[in-house]
Specification:
By secondary structure, this protein is of the alpha/beta class. Strand 1 (49-55), helix 3 (60-70) and strand 2 form a beta-alpha-beta unit. Helix 7 packs parallel to helix 10. Strands 2-1-3-4-5 form a five-stranded mixed beta sheet, sandwiched between helices. The protein has helices spanning 3-19, 21-41, 60-70, 84-92, 106-111, 127-155, 179-210, 212-218, 223-253, 261-285, 289-306, 318-324, 328-342, 350-375, and strands at 49-55, 75-80, 98-102, 115-123, 164-172.
Length: 376
C-alpha cells in the first residue's frame, strides 16, 4: 500500500467533486439546512393558537377574561366578531383554531354570585391542536375563575364566593378527534407531490444520460410539444395515484370527502401539474440521476417538515412560517383538510387556493424557461 497512490486517488476524487457543483452545494448546504429545519420545525408544542371572540357581555369582567387568554402563552388574540356565524366562518376558512362565545349575562351572573359559562368552539380537523387547545382553554378559564373568587373573598372578608366561570368546549368537524381524519388527507398530498416530482426529475435526466434528448431536438418537435408530451404520461400516473389513494382512504380508514369532490379533483389536478413542473425544474439543473435524486430530496425534506403535515405551523417561528408558505404543499394541505374533513367549499379556501396557484404558475414559468433554454 502506497500513501502516494492513495493521495493521488483522493486528489482525483476531490477534483471530481469540485466539478460536480450541484452535489458540492448540496453536500455543504444540506447539513445547515437540516439543522435549521429540524431545530425550528420539529416542535410538538402547541402555542400561539389564534382565537376570535364573540363578546355579547361587553363588560369589564368579560374583557378581563379575554385578556387572561391573550396574555397566556397558549393563545393569540386574532379578532372580535359580531355573530356566531362569523365565528364559524373564520374557523371553516382556517383563519382561527378557537372561537370564544361570552354570553350577554356573563357579568350579571357573576355579580349575583352565580355560575357563568362560556362556549369554546375548537377546530377538530387537527386532533393534536384541538385536544391541546381545549385543555388550555379549560385551564385558563379555571385560573381566571379562581382569581375572581379570591378577589371576591378579599372584598367581602372571609365569606367565600360561589360565583365561578366554566368553559364548555365543543369540537367541530371531528368530534371524536380521530387522527386518521387529519393524517390521511395529508398523506394524499404528500404522495401526489413526492412520486410525481421524483418520477419527472429522473425521466428528464435519463434522456440526457442516454443522449436521446439530442435526437428529439433534431426532430420537428417544438420545445412546448416536447414538454407537454413528456408530461402527459406522468399526469396520467398522478391522476391514477390520486384516485387509488382516495378510494383506499375511504375503504381502509373510513375517511370520506365531506365537501365537493369535483372541487377536490380540480384543485388536486392543478397541484399535480405544479408538482410535475417542480420535477422538471430540478431535471434542468441536474446533470445525472444521482443529482436529480439529491435535488428532489433537498426540496421534499423541508416541504414535508414545514408544511404542517407533522408539526403545527403555529408553533414555528414567524420566518419559518413564511418559508413554509413558499411550498405549494403547505396550501394544498389546507385545501385537502378543508374539503375532506370540514366539508367547506372553495370560497372558504380562497386564500390558500390563490397562494397555491401563484406558486405553481411561477414554477411552471421557471421550468418552461429553463427547459427551453436547455433545448436551444
Amino acid at each position: 500500500m502506497k500513501i502516494r497512490r492513495i493521495l493521488t486517488v483522493a486528489r482525483k476524487e476531490v477534483i471530481h467533486i469540485k466539478r460536480d457543483k450541484p452535489s458540492l452545494i448540496i453536500s455543504f448546504m444540506m447539513p445547515i439546512m437540516m439543522l435549521l429545519i429540524f431545530g425550528f420545525a420539529v416542535n410538538t408544542d402547541v402555542n400561539n393558537v389564534d382565537f376570535a371572540v364573540l363578546d355579547s357581555s361587553r363588560t369589564a369582567l368579560s374583557r378581563e377574561l379575554i385578556a387572561s387568554f391573550s396574555k397566556s402563552y397558549y393563545f393569540r388574540e386574532y379578532a372580535f366578531v359580531e355573530s356566531v356565524e362569523e365565528l364559524e366562518y373564520m374557523i371553516q376558512a382556517g383563519e382561527i383554531k378557537v372561537g370564544m362565545v361570552i354570553p350577554s349575562d356573563f357579568s350579571r351572573n357573576l355579580k349575583r354570585r352565580a355560575a357563568s359559562q362560556i362556549q369554546i368552539l375548537v377546530d377538530g380537523s387537527d386532533p393534536t391542536i384541538a385536544r391541546t387547545a381545549a385543555s388550555y382553554a379549560m385551564a385558563v378559564t379555571n385560573a381566571y375563575s379562581a382569581e375572581f373568587q379570591l378577589t371576591q373573598i378579599e372584598k367581602s372578608g372571609i365569606k367565600p364566593s360561589t360565583a365561578s366561570v366554566t368553559a364548555a368546549p365543543m369540537i367541530l368537524y371531528n368530534p371524536t378527534l380521530e387522527s386518521a381524519k387529519f393524517n390521511v388527507p395529508g398523506v394524499v398530498g404528500l404522495i401526489l407531490q413526492n412520486i410525481t416530482i421524483i418520477l419527472t426529475a429522473l425521466a428528464m435526466v435519463r434522456e440526457k444520460e442516454l443522449g436521446t434528448i439530442e435526437q428529439l431536438i433534431m426532430t420537428p418537435v417544438t420545445a412546448t410539444e416536447l414538454i407537454i408530451g413528456k408530461l402527459i404520461p406522468y399526469i396520467a400516473i398522478g391522476c391514477y395515484d390520486f384516485a387509488v389513494v382516495m378510494i383506499l382512504s375511504y375503504l381502509i380508514f373510513g375517511v370520506s370527502v365531506a365537501g365537493n369532490i369535483l372541487e377536490l379533483i380540480l384543485l388536486g389536478f392543478i397541484f399535480l401539474v405544479g408538482a410535475l413542473a417542480t420535477g422538471m425544474l430540478i431535471s434542468t439543473v441536474a446533470r445525472n440521476q444521482a443529482q436529480a435524486i439529491q435535488g428532489a430530496l433537498a426540496f421534499l425534506l423541508p416541504s414535508v417538515l414545514l408544511s404542517g403535515f407533522m408539526f403545527p405551523r403555529e408553533s414555528m417561528p414567524i420566518f419559518i412560517q413564511w418559508l413554509s408558505a413558499l411550498f405549494p404543499i403547505t396550501h394544498f394541505l389546507v385545501i385537502l383538510r378543508g374539503i375532506i374533513v370540514k366539508g367547506v367549499n372553495i370560497s372558504y379556501l380562497m386564500g390558500s387556493t390563490v397562494a397555491m396557484l401563484l406558486l405553481i404558475v411561477i414554477t411552471i414559468g421557471a421550468a418552461a424557461a429553463k427547459f427551453s433554454k436547455k433545448l436551444d
